[in-house]
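Lab notes, practical 5.
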Amino acid sequence: MPSPRPTPTATKLAWRAEELPDGSVEMTVGDVDAAPRDPRALNVADYRAPADVNDCDQVQVVSVRGWWCTTKVKALSEDGEIVVSGGPSRARLSSAGFATRCSGRRPGRMRELYQIERDSWSGWRDYTGQQPTEWTASKDQTEGPVSAPCPLGRVGTYDYRVAVTLDVEGLRVGDSPAASTRVRVPCGTGTS
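Output from the prediction step:
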């Protein structure tokens, strides 16, 4: 008789990431089979099972039917979502913000977790700490603008982006964010 499978210690919603021609990433969670795909997407990644076989005993992907939510970072200019403004002593990274729109049955209360990230040799790192929006029962949530100062005396040229992860009350969405187009500018190292 085979031994019983262990009870998963984490659950996550299925998601789909779509990279658009400008380099931004829109993220859809929930019923990804029912959610329409963006015809402009250059690359598409679906998460419907743990990526690592060893995680199969620890992570259960929750299949939901009848609703999905798509998060997009809003464009600030034709050149991308993030710009650096102000002089050397008052420089800021700024973005127009982001929005999540849900379709189908309402998934319950949700919020967005957002931050500005900078790239490094080891991947994306926090530039600002992650901030939550207010919990809402609405199908739509819009937030913005997002900005952060460039620290004085700590100049470095990096790629920056706004990263947004949806948080649905009672369901773990995962760690893969919707993201803005990256921009390479001299700003600093931030909190990391």
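Observations recorded by the TA: The CA atoms of residues 109 and 169 lie 6 Å apart. Residues 76-81 have pLDDT under 50 and may be disordered.
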